[in-house]
Design goal:
This protein has 692 residues and is α+β, with helices and mostly antiparallel strands. It has 28 helices and 9 strands.
């Protein structure tokens, strides 16, 4: 009797994470904490969807659907392709190959449009895995080759190892064991320097399968147990289940079916939780074979028939050929004394067995599985002999010999030995290179000590210089922050909510009184002031003409709002170039505002504000003067420049801006406020700064 070969194919996806329960828990906590529906949330959902394929594929599909909706809303094509790929991974974990292929093709179309070669390569790999499952080996190898070529160009060694490992699986299905071993060992060589325990476990498990098929059960167990240890370390339940099944096969082939059943049932329990139809069918067949060896044909038949139904529903032809063969073997060889209890009657048993064998051979021929055909021809020879059809029995036996020899010939043995020797030689070369490197390090140690002392001295100097530089950088950063903060305060002062509210109220008042022309005029001035203020705020300096224009808009609005209770004049000396003289934007607005708000309060005469700009000794003098109540009276009323011993915010910010000018230009800019007896005068002196 032959046993099912429970293979585990390495699934590559857009999220290159190892499926660990702790990893999944961490991702779920992060997703719960991150409420915003953005790119970060999309990446978390994609990672979670992939992780679920190892534990709860149904939840993985639900999470992938959430990722698909979010990716579409964000117009994130790469994230969308990843979501479709992860949905396919979970369908594959459930054994739904048709849905998995559909998802992969959708993802591949998106990756191709985006010229995303790593994504395309991963999808090639995943599609090939599914194609192997439905026994389309030629197309699977083609996709694996495409995947490997892309990863090789990208020098992505972990993904190269995955592709090589999966190529080995294809050759394992085709019973080309030396070729399979060659690919597995190449993959393992790449992974030796990697911390990817999951990938290494996968290669070790498949190498164990090769040795099992070559009847070297001791080596097979060594590799499987090492793989089981790594799968357990990573928390990969599917890997654990597959390896438990593989160990069961080794014990079954070693004539210990009772121990084999224990391992099979452990694997089945995990696969039932995961809902993986293919793996469940594999475990059921293996348990059935072991029960048949333990003289429990009724239990064997029950497990085989349950597996048969799963294979037909999942479309797994390779496993279908196996279970048909096992049912035929059961009908052909069960003792007559117990046959009646599990079948319809003694006369039909050989005919039923023959029908199962012929169906198995047809499926094996369709898939090109050499080992399946070999097993079935051997069984056909036996059933023909029981049916006294000796000519057919001889012909079937000849076919069996042909297929058997093609699998287990002397040349294959030589190729296996040669491959093993090459692998061991490469390992020895690597060890020798490591020893030489260690000797070189020791030889240079003495020189290194001297160099270290020299470097220490240099490092001390560098450390000190860096400390000094860091302190300078810190102070510069603090100054930049002060500048930014002051500029923001100045902008907020200019965009005073109280002023804006008053302006909008004035416009509303004009409209309510049907004074549309005045409302339009006020609105135009207001919009020009807002636009000019915002445009000027983007620059640390603007032309004097533009700044005076914005200041005039402000005075016009305030004059209109107050019922023209004050007038203004702006005088610029002829030797001042208003277009090229640069000043900080709206630096003088706080002085004008104080004159309007405080200087004219309580005074019945018409107010007036004069602005005079003069150039003297490479400096520009700005004089803002009003005929208000004066500085002393304003202070006594707690309305100008000071309130409860606190300086006016506007004047405070203006002083800070002038201090910044002095620090950056190394000048002596200044501001002064005096009481003229007829009002208040503010004088600001700035260095002459011309645009280049």
């Amino acid at each position: 009797m032959r046993k099912l070969l429970p293979l585990f194919l390495f699934l590559a996806c857009s999220c290159a994470t190892v499926a660990q329960l702790s990893q999944l828990d961490s991702l779920l906590q992060l997703a719960k904490a991150h409420q915003q529906e953005d790119g970060v949330k999309l990446r978390l959902l994609n990672d979670i969807a992939f992780e679920y394929n190892f534990t709860e594929p149904e939840k993985g599909i639900e999470t992938a659907d959430r990722a698909i909706l979010l990716a579409k809303s964000l117009d994130d094509n790469v994230g969308l392709a990843s979501a479709y790929s992860n949905k396919g991974v979970n369908y594959a974990a459930l054994g739904d190959d048709s849905s998995a292929l559909h998802m992969y093709r959708t993802a591949l179309e998106i990756y191709t449009r985006e010229d995303n070669f790593p994504g395309m390569a991963r999808i090639y790999n995943n599609m090939a895995i599914v194609l192997v499952g439905i026994s389309n080996y030629a197309d699977a190898l083609d996709y694996y080759t495409k995947s490997f070529s892309v990863f090789e160009k990208l020098d992505n060694k972990p993904q190269m190892a995955r592709s090589l490992n999966n190529m080995g699986v294809v050759y394992l299905y085709l019973a080309d064991y030396p070729k399979a071993l060659e690919y597995y060992l190449k993959a393992l060589t790449i992974l030796e320097s990697s911390d990817d325990d999951y990938a290494r476990a996968n290669s070790l498990s498949n190498i164990g399968i090769v040795y099992k098929n070559l009847f070297d059960y001791k080596k097979a167990l060594e590799f499987h147990n090492e793989a089981l240890e790594l799968y357990t370390k990573t928390g990969n339940r599917q890997g654990i289940a597959n390896t438990l099944g593989n160990i069961g096969v080794v014990y079954d082939n070693s004539n210990d079916p009772k121990l084999a059943v224990e391992y099979y049932r452990k694997a089945l329990a995990i696969n039932n939780v995961l809902g993986n139809k293919k793996r469940i069918a594999s475990d059921l067949i293996n348990i059935g074979v072991a029960l048949q060896n333990l003289d429990d044909p009724a239990g064997a038949k029950d497990h085989f028939e349950r597996a048969l139904a799963l294979c037909k529903s999942s479309g797994d032809k390779n496993t279908l050929a196996i279970v048909l063969n096992q049912l035929g073997d059961l009908y052909a060889n069960v003792p007559d004394s117990v046959f009646a209890s599990i079948s319809l009657g003694g006369s039909s048993r050989f005919g039923t067995a023959l029908e199962y064998f012929e169906n198995s051979l047809a499926v094996a021929r369709e898939t090109g599985a050499v080992d399946r055909q070999s097993e079935t021809w051997e069984n056909l020879s036996g059933i023909y002999e029981k049916m006294k059809l000796h000519d057919k029995a001889l012909e079937a036996y000849k076919q069996y010999i042909v297929f058997r020899d093609s699998i287990h010939n002397v040349e294959n043995g030589k190729r296996v030995t040669r491959t093993e020797m090459e692998f061991e030689f490469q390992k020895k070369e690597a060890l020798a290179a490591a020893r030489i490197e260690n000797e070189r390090i020791l030889r240079n140690a003495a020189i290194g000590v001297a160099i270290i002392l020299l470097v220490a001295a240099i490092s001390t100097f560098i450390f000190y210089k860096r400390k000094v530089d860091a302190e300078k950088t810190r102070k510069a950063a603090e100054f930049r922050a002060t500048v930014a903060s002051t500029e923001m305060k100045a902008l907020r002062l200019q965009m005073n909510p109280h002023f804006i509210f008053n302006a909008l109220n004035s416009i509303s008042d004009y409209i309510s009184r049907n004074n549309v022309d005045q409302a339009n005029y006020y609105l135009v001035k207001f919009s020009k002031l807002m636009r000019t203020t915002l445009e000027n705020s983007e620059h640390s300096e603007v032309g004097l003409a533009a700044d005076l224009e914005a200041l005039e808009y402000y005075m016009q609005l305030e004059s209109l709002r107050s019922g023209n209770k004050f007038s203004y004049s702006i005088k610029v000396d002829e030797d001042v170039d208003t277009e090229n003289t640069m000043v900080p934007p709206m630096l003088f607005q706080p002085f004008v505002e104080n004159s309007i708000v405080h200087g004219f309060t309580g005074k019945n005469v018409q107010g007036h504000i004069s602005i005079h700009v003069q150039a003297r000794d490479e400096r520009v003098h700005y004089v803002i003067e009003d005929n208000g109540v004066g500085l002393a009276q304003a202070k006594n009323a707690n309305s100008f420049g000071s309130s409860n011993n606190k300086k006016s915010m506007g004047l405070k910010i203006t002083r800070e801006r002038i201090d910044i000018i002095n620090r950056t230009r190394k000048t002596n800019a200044s501001m002064e406020i005096t009481d003229t007896g007829r009002g208040t005068r503010a004088t600001v002196i700035l260095p002459l700064q011309l645009s280049i």
